[in-house]
Amino acid sequence: GTMAIVNALVPLAHKLGMKVVAEGVETQAQLAQLREADVDEFQGFLMYEPMPPATCESMLETASASRYFRNEVI
């Protein structure tokens, strides 16, 4: 299945010096599987849902010091 592909490609990407970004992460279960597979970064509705540009700008202005922004908590 999908995780078999992820588990094969992540080590290959790392050996080539690449970071692996998982897009479309929507559930804690998906996040756990991707972390177990050693994926480097994550994007998706689980982190943030789509928002208007003004809201995004405001969030980014205040988030730079937060633990979430630094990927310490998710």
Write up what this structure looks like.
- There is one protein chain.
- This protein has 74 residues and is mainly alpha-helical.
- Helix content is 46%, strand content 5%.
- The radius of gyration is 14 Å and the shape is elongated.
Instruction: Briefly note the structural class of the backbone.
Output: mainly alpha
Q: Helix and strand succession?
A: HEHEH
The 3D shape can be described as elongated
Spans where pLDDT lies below 50 across 5 or more residues: none
- Calculate the mean pLDDT score and round it: 87
Portion in strands: 5-15%
Number of helices: 3
- The level of helicity is 40-55%
**How would a crystallographer describe the biggest sheet?**
2 strands, parallel
Main sheet: strand order: 1-2
List the helices and strands and how they pair.
Blueprint lengths: L1 H14 L5 E2 L5 H9 L4 E2 L10 H11 L11
Parallel strand pairs: 1-2
Question: TL;DR?
Answer:
By secondary structure, the protein is mainly α.
